Amino acid sequence: MDHELGIWLVRAEAEALGERLRQRLGGDVLRPWLVADMAPLEQFQRVFPVYRQWLLVMATGIAVRYVDGLLQDKRYDPGVVSVDEAGRHAVVLLGGHEGGANRLAYRVANAVGAMPVVTTATEARKPLVLGIGCRKGVSAQEIEFTVRMALGDVGLDMVREVATVSVKAEEPGLLDFCEQNRLPLRIIALAQIECRAWAGKPSAWVRETLGVDGVCEPAALIACPRGHLAVPKISHNGVAVAVVLDSWEDWT
C-alpha 11: how far from its chain's center? Predict the structure, then answer.
């Protein structure tokens, strides 16, 4: 494989989304309609093994037909994520772990505000979502200390993802914490939190800085809409953490 990410469009109507994804994620945008003498599916079959990962901007049904017959071994096949042309869902189809598609789905989600759809068994058995807010410059160690306070006797291996507000998307300490613990980071737009601004323990500092009452609780609840707040906000040394428990059995 010579290239990292291929972004395949099936229609010119997806140009704007494809370009946004390229700007945020890198990679190459491929437009099969520009090649008049070869069918799109044949083009894809030829370039499929060239890329380490694929982002297919199309319905999942079309994506399944595209990859049919091309797979060799899950240890070496490219990771594949399908995203609809409206940028609403980033669905992991192949190579969630080995091909890095789970991580790619989160990158797509953070780039365009999509919902990452990850169905691998390891992630499905992790019921906790952490909401984290922090002041600028806090370290990964400070974040982990507060997270472990919030989790109590529960280990980080039960955490599925971390959610935070968009203005903290590049916070070094938060990124380091997620990287060190191999946790995907879900970015929630500030506008979304403004629309669901409930906070059990409002913060005057957050209200003054961001215009909302809190970050960690609403971010976690937005990331896990069917979950409930298992641990309300715990604050320590510039870090705020809330824990949401997800369970389909509680959904009515």
Answer: 25
Amino acid in position 188? I
Chain centre to alpha carbon of residue 232:
23
pLDDT band at 204 (very low <50, low <70, confident <90, very high): confident
In the chain, the amino acid numbered 50 is: V
Pair of tokens at residue 111:
């780039």
| Closest by Cα among 109, 98, 86 to 162 | 109
Round to whole Å and give the CA distance between 7 and 181.
29
pLDDT in tens, 147-192: 999 999 999 999 999 999 999 999 999 999 999 999 999 999 999 9
List of domains in the chain: 3-122 (3.40.50.11220), 126-250 (3.30.420.180)
Contacts 24+ apart (CB under 8 A), 101-104: 101/53, 102/184, 103/184, 104/5, 104/25, 104/53, 104/55, 104/79
Residue burial 56-94, b: 16+ Cβ < 10 Å; e: rest: bbbeeeebeebbeeeeeeeeebbbbbbbbbebebbbbbb
* Tokens linked to 124: 């499905």
| pTM for this entry | 0.91
